[in-house]
Write a structure and sequence with these properties.
Elements (H helix, E strand, L loop, with lengths): L1 H19 E7 L5 E6 L2 H4 L2 H14 L6 E5 L4 H13 L6 E4 L12 E2 L8 E9 L3 H12 L3 E10 L4 H7 L3 E7 H10 L1
Parallel strand pairs: 3-4, 3-6, 6-7, 7-8
Antiparallel strand pairs: 1-2, 4-5
Helix pairs in contact: 1-3, 1-7, 3-4
Length: about 190
């Protein structure tokens, strides 16, 4: 299995370099300026990218995880992919999608998806972590709904303070790649 994971991780890294990574002048959602941009959806919305992401993150979940959740829109394909892979592993884990603003009608809910038991352990997923504020909003919404968050897993850590921020909030954080991994692979090509 380990060998398979490595090749899957390598395949995913290649996809990030080919489809998601761009150099230039960009303004990030955090408001920060950057000379590179990562659009994770260019990978997570491709069939092979979704499958690789689903398998790799599923392997990173704690055995206690009862749900995966993330802030719309970047996390939507990730939580869906992990949930589908979990079903194939005979360990179905529901996906929750967290709105940035409460729904303006019906239940006016922030969280879409199956209701989990009170105190359920949920892992927050994110495509790219910069400052960490986006996934933190998801964490707060989940806690407000009565769930526990065990950790945050990101596809890419931009190494711009997010990991340190989560640590300061007492949250475990893991990423599949760092921006350094992607930039090094990009230079090889």
């Amino acid at each position: 299995m380990e060998n398979n994971s490595l090749s899957l991780k390598q395949q995913l890294l290649n996809m990030f370099v080919e489809y998601a990574y761009q150099e230039g002048d960009f303004t990030l959602s955090s408001g920060q300026k950057s000379n590179f941009y990562l659009n994770g959806k260019q990978v997570t919305l491709r069939a092979q990218g979704a499958l690789a992401v689903g398998k790799l993150i599923y392997e990173m979940l704690s055995p206690q995880a009862q749900g995966v959740a993330g802030l719309t829109l970047g996390a939507d394909p990730i939580v869906s992919a992990v949930s589908v892979v979990s079903a194939y592993e005979n360990n179905p884990i529901p996906a929750l999608i967290i709105r940035k603003e409460a729904k303006g009608h019906g239940t006016k809910a922030y969280i879409e998806g199956p209701n989990l038991p009170p105190g359920a352990v949920v892992t927050v997923l994110e495509d790219v972590v910069t400052t960490g504020k986006s996934a933190m909003l998801a964490v707060e919404r989940l806690i407000d709904a009565g769930y526990q968050v065990d950790k945050i897993i990101s596809l890419v850590d931009r190494q711009a303070g997010g990991a340190e921020f989560y640590q300061s909030q007492g949250l475990e954080f893991e990423s599949i790649f760092t921006i350094a991994d992607i930039q090094a692979k990009s230079k090889e090509k």
